[in-house]
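Sequence in, structure out. Go.
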Amino acid sequence: MDNASKKQRGLILGALIGALLGAGTAYLLMTAPSDPEDEREPLTGPELLGLTGAAALLIRKLDDIRRRL
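Output:
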């Protein structure tokens, strides 16, 4: 497989992953409670650290995939 087709495959894979993540985020935003002020609990430090770690893990995994293409 030549370099141009590897690049094209990587771009297609990235577009698909981005589309899935975008659709998932849109679903979460669309199904959010309409008036969350009464039900809202404050975020804790461990929750924010977990979210940051998950985002870093996703970026690292995507970079691993990019290097293998």
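Check: The radius of gyration is 17 Å. Residues 3-32+44-68 form one domain.
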